[in-house]
Amino acid sequence: MDAAPPSVPAPSPLLVLFDCDGTLVDSQHMIVAAMTSAHALNGIALPSRERLLSVVGLSLNEAFLSLSGGATGYPVAAMAEAYRDAYLALRERAPMEPLFPDAREVIAALRARPEVTLGIVTGKARRGVDRLLAAHDMEGWFATIQTADDAPSKPHPAMVQQALRAVGALPEETVVVGDTTYDVLMALQAGASALGVTWGYHKAEDLRLAGAHRLVDAFSAVPGALAAITAARAASGTP
Ligand SMILES: [Mg+2]
């Protein structure tokens, strides 16, 4: 008599929270152009391109606070407003920021897996995210979208915590995928795992030092890295 077939355990639930700028979309040309415009309008010397891109991922006020270097009288609010206006004006004329290679295919495949839930955690405004998803025909792909409109800037963990509440997930089932140390620190502070991507705006070494559990150099490597993080977490028994 045949033995009963071994029962295959259902895959554990997995919530994957993606950052936008530098992770899903390559927005550096528009960001640098809008930064250039904001600095010119306010008569402030333009920092290096590397410095400008290092603050991408923070909410706008925090980004300009960081760029101010603590200088007294730096017009944070005026810079943020000028940047926002310039970015919106550029969007009227420029084509939408492109997705990074294979992003769409990989996310579509993740989305098709029953145990996987997808979300977005971004320093962008909600309006910008909605426009981006519509332009790339990805509306409805993400179960929860957390933006700078409803939470403190990264690396505060609120966006991740709100996403967990929104979909009923646990931190130990959650991986944040992002290109900056702000994403990594936000994930760790929320008790989630962090997958760093090296095609964005912070250096791989900085992501590693911040505590990223894995790093990937291409979108096609994301599913394997997610599986490795999940397996390591299950093996260690520690969330
Ligand atoms: Mg980013």
Tell me what the structure shows.
By secondary structure, the protein is an alpha/beta fold. The protein folds into two domains: 14-26 and 98-236, 3-Layer(aba) Sandwich (Rossmann fold), CATH 3.40.50; 28-93, DNA polymerase, domain 1, CATH 1.10.150. Helices cover 45% and strands 11% of the residues. The chain has ten helices and six strands. Strands 3-2-1-4-5-6 form a six-stranded parallel beta sheet, with helices on both faces. The structure holds magnesium ion. The site of magnesium ion has 10 residues, from loops.
Q: What's the layout of helices and strands?
A:
Layout: E1 14-18, H1 28-41, H2 49-54, H3 60-68, H4 76-93, H5 103-111, E2 116-121, H6 126-135, E3 144-146, H7 158-167, E4 174-178, H8 181-189, E5 193-197, H9 204-210, E6 214-216, H10 222-236
Helix pairs in contact: 1-4, 3-4
The chain binds magnesium ion.
Residues 19, 21-23, 56-57, 178-180, 200 line the site of magnesium ion.
Key attributes of the depicted protein:
DNA polymerase, domain 1; 10 helices; alpha/beta; 239 residues; Rossmann fold; binds magnesium ion
Going by CATH, the architecture of the largest domain would be 3-Layer(aba) Sandwich
How many E-type strands? 6
Task: Kindly name the structural category.
Answer: alpha/beta
Biggest sheet overview: 6 strands, parallel
Ligands, deduplicated? magnesium ion
Question: Termini separation (Å)?
Answer: 42 Å
The CATH superfamily of the largest domain appears as HAD superfamily/HAD-like
- Tally of structural domains: 2
Question: What global shape is seen?
Answer: elongated
Strand residue content: 5-15%
Uncertain runs: none
CATH class of the largest domain: Alpha Beta
What quaternary form is this?
single chain
Estimated helix fraction: 40-55%
Number of helices: 10
CATH topology name of the largest domain: Rossmann fold
